[in-house]
Design brief:
264 residues, alpha/beta, Rossmann fold, 4-stranded parallel beta sheet, 9 helices, 17% strand, globular, Vit_B12_bind_prot
Length: 264
């Protein structure tokens, strides 16, 4: 029996490298399945990558069915402190199922460090994992992202939801992705990670010259040319992939170039 320690300091005892993993986190589902194909035996309805992932679904990320996850007889369940409820994690642990909880990363380096800890810790030795536990995509993501951020050349408002409006605030992974590519966002000093300002307050940021760019991802709200910019007449905007902006995992490799290409 080997006991690992997850991001929140909880013990995760495993007798052997897991052979059956249920993931409650879309980004972790992609990272693990990309690294060790076939290891994921259950995922949430929102685990859309890899696109050909064909496994039983256990509900949404925020409200998964713990019983459905347990019925899949996983050796390990992957969760996230922000995306999954503590009571669901505890229900699985009470059923005798080890659960690894990833802390919600506030920066790209924090996300990469957490992924490295998972892949070189409880998942080390799984079929397909390199001897040192570090897959090529993770090494490449670290090479691309663990550098000095580019000089700030734009200040943005970054909505992630509408009805009501919700924007990126303090200590968010997506905010740090943008910052490292030279785009700061005006709510980085907010008290909340996801503030809910009124539309007139958002517009005022542009009127006052505090912001000069609107960044609109296609998830969780699917902003488009006709849904989002209409609320900010005359404001320069860019549409970006929500996956590239907010998912940590193999997508980070492509995200660096793809986001650089569309940002000012």
């Amino acid at each position: 029996m080997t006991t690992f320690t997850d991001d929140l300091g909880a013990d995760v005892p495993l007798p052997d490298p897991p052979r059956r993993v249920v993931s409650l986190v879309p980004a972790l589902t992609e990272a693990v399945e990309y690294t060790t194909p076939g290891l994921i035996v259950g995922a949430t309805d929102y685990c859309t990558h890899p696109p050909d992932l064909d496994v039983p679904r256990v509900g949404g990320s925020k409200y998964p069915t713990a019983g459905a996850a347990a019925e899949l007889r996983p050796d390990l369940v992957l969760a996230n402190a922000e995306e999954n409820r503590p009571q669901d994690v505890q229900a699985l642990r009470d059923a005798g199922i080890p659960v690894w909880v990833m802390e919600a990363p506030g920066t790209v380096p924090a996300a990469l460090a957490s992924l490295r800890a998972l892949l070189t810790g409880p998942l080390a030795g799984c079929a397909g994992t390199p001897a040192d536990g570090v897959p090529a995509w993770l090494a490449e993501a670290e090479r691309l992202w663990l550098t000095e951020p580019r000089p700030v050349r734009a200040r943005a408002v970054v909505p992630v939801w509408r009805k009501p409006w919700v924007v990126l605030g303090r200590d968010t992974f997506g905010g740090d992705v943008l910052r490292r590519l030279g785009v700061d966002h005006v709510y980085t000093g907010a008290d909340e990670r996801y503030p809910r300002p009124k539309l007139d307050q958002l517009r005022q940021r542009f009127a006052d010259g505090e912001a000069d760019l609107l960044v609109l991802p296609d998830e969780p709200w699917e902003f488009t040319d006709g849904d989002g910019p209409d609320a900010f007449p005359g404001v320069p905007y860019v549409l970006v992939s929500g996956r590239y902006l907010t998912w940590y995992g193999p997508s980070l490799v492509a995200a660096h170039g793809e986001l650089s290409a569309v940002l000012p």
